[in-house]
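Summary for the steering committee. One of the milestones for this cycle was to obtain a three-dimensional model of the protein with fe (ii) ion bound, which we needed before selecting residues for the alanine scan. The sequence and ligand used are listed below.
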Amino acid sequence: MRRERTSAEWIDYFDANEANWSDIPWHRGAEAALEPIRPLVRSLQAWQLGETSEARRLKTAAKRHAYEIGDPDFVTAMDLFIAEEQRHGEALGRWLDAVGAERLQRDLGDSLFRFFRHARPNIEVWTTVVAMIETIAVVYYSSVRRAIPSPLLQAICEQILRDEMPHLEFQTDRLRLLLRNRRPVWLWLTVRAQEVFFAGMVLVVWLAHRRMFVAGRHTFLSYVRATFRHMRHAWRAMRACEHAATTAQKPTAAEPPSRLEGWLH
Ligand SMILES: [Fe+2]
Ligand SMILES: [Fe+2]
């Protein structure tokens, strides 16, 4: 079992990973007609809005947490993580521009997720919700890649997928730290509550984006199985409390810090 990365190591990873976005073939344009895929593009418009959040409250929660544990680097690591999510939003936005679809300013599903995240803005709630979104995002972007035959969008999705797996490790590292000293009975209850919340989130995302999942060759059951399979990896990672600090590898962009690779196969 790998140890958690330090905040300084995550800063190095996020800094280096930015260079991977230089390989996106923007010159190709969308190479897709809007009308035949308009219902799918509607889903992508809503998802793009979610990726563009400024995350001011998350930044506040991260600062408070960093102060409490004496780890100022965590604030920078969180800023870089949020910047990477915004890069996803900007890339999807550029693709929407290219295909001739507008970028949304508002969406009901996005507002709902913001409400839940803001209901209790501490770092554990934030990190848990973001980890769940990352998990579903892996299934979503895999579906987009299969559903919309635009080489540019497929390249964007592939880079986002490469980013999202380390993102999930970034979240599970934090949750492992936060849950480390929780008594077994409270830990058990925490995970049961997370399972219930995650099941609700999986259902809501299916209802909002089912056209994309179906076009990406999912049925409701295969989608539920895929999301829960990924989330079970995350639950296992966040509960494992081994600290092999001396044996860990420093992550680099060329070699993403992810033992979650292979999920897509
Ligand atoms: Fe993302
Ligand atoms: Fe992410």
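Key point for the committee: Residues 31 and 150 are 6 Å apart (CA to CA).
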